[in-house]
Amino acid sequence: MSVRDLLLNHPRLLAFGVVLTGLSSFGQTFLISLFGGHVREALELGNTGYGLIYSLATLASAATLVRAGRVVDTRDLRLVTAGVLATAAAGCALLAGAHGVLVLLVAFYLLRLSGQGMMVHVAQTTMGRYFRAERGRAVSIAMLGLPLAEAVMPMTLVAATGLLGWRTTWLAAAVVLAVAMVPLALWLLRGHSERVSAWQAEVASDADNATPDGTDWRRRDVLRHPVFYALMPAIMGPPLIVTALFFHQVPVAEAKGWGLDWLASSFLAFGTAHVLGLMLAGPLVDRLGARRLVPLLLVPMLLALLTLALVPGAWAAPVYLFLMGMSAGTAGTLMGALWAELYGTRHLGAIRALAQAVMIMTTAVSPVLAGALLDAGMAPTTLALVLAAYALAAALLAATAGQR
């Protein structure tokens, strides 16, 4: 089935995925980090302290996701979606009113759990479960919401902050999520009961229950599977690296001589490349399989880090962000298809929640470590070289897993 036919046959379900991944930007580092200077100034926090609060909130959200992620296997998708969007609205409202460290911590926890955690998890699990032969393309289409948000949201929120102030901007986001986005998501899922019945019939007949070797994988089985551990460093690479650098993009921009407005506008290159990565990876996943593509995931990321470390001038910003976006887009498709390909769909929510939680834990650690290194005097360009070494090692390890 072509992408056009896929869109014609399943418009609302695919639109649901696009909407959910786009709204996840409210809990993503690339958006939250733009307000780091405002929040640090308002609460009188340094880079290390601010990074520590963000990391603690992210770790707590990852621990919660391991259990909460299973609800996609056992609860009505419409109820789960409404709850996730309401949680994100609460996080936005708390951030708008944060005047102390504790409220900031809770706000970040709710935003990270609902945004980077559950919204992406629900969207990818839904695509992986209800599409088979077109799984890669379905995931790539659904994940378009995130690069679209990356291209539009930074400039929009920076402009809104200039007009309204940062607190009012986040309060307005809470209202939009609660009043407009919950009804929209529920409308897009209209008729979902029939889709669930069809999938349950497939599972009952073992049509899409297990992997080609006939194994009905559960989460405890995955934890004993060595290939899972060999692939995870590469899968974790893009979010780990993107979070470390994007969270501290203000000192990175200062070191490179980039203005914040120029950096925000350069995210258009990131969003464009993210779309290209998604759309190129989808058909390749359907044709070649997700596992074979994992070692190639970090090649653009490696080139991006070398650009950041070694190339001077303002034009290096869009080049660096474009290459980062290519890896981020490919990772979005692979994360949505890989676990269903390896372990089947019966327990996909629980298995994906495990992988997603591990990934989020790495993004929790990277901001505080990067902040500590920057506060200790490490140049952002040196940090980029350290991350490049990690990317190379993870790609080589994933290549060995592809041979198993």
Describe this protein's structure:
- This protein is mainly α.
- The protein has one domain: MFS general substrate transporter like domains (Growth Hormone, Chain: A, Up-down Bundle).
- Helix content is 81%, strand content 0%.
- The protein starts with a helix and ends with a helix.
Summarize the structure.
With 404 residues, the protein is mostly helical. The protein has one domain (3-401): Growth Hormone, Chain: A. The protein contains 21 helices and no strands.
What is the element layout, followed by pairings?
Elements: H1 3-9, H2 11-23, H3 29-32, H4 36-43, H5 47-68, H6 71-74, H7 77-96, H8 101-130, H9 135-142, H10 145-164, H11 166-188, H12 192-204, H13 219-222, H14 226-247, H15 249-256, H16 260-288, H17 290-293, H18 299-310, H19 316-343, H20 348-375, H21 380-401
Helix pairs in contact: 2-8, 2-9, 2-10, 2-11, 5-8, 5-20, 7-8, 7-11, 8-9, 8-19, 8-20, 9-16, 9-19, 10-11, 10-16, 14-19, 14-20, 14-21, 16-19, 18-19, 18-21
Shape: globular
Order of helices and strands: HHHHHHHHHHHHHHHHHHHHH
Strand content: under 5%
Radius of gyration, taken over Cα atoms and rounded to an integer in Å: 20 Å
Query: How many DSSP helices?
Result: 21
Task: Tell me the number of strands.
Answer: 0
Measured distance between first and last alpha carbons: 30 Å
Give the key terms.
0% strand; 404 residues; Growth Hormone, Chain: A; mainly alpha; 21 helices; 81% helix
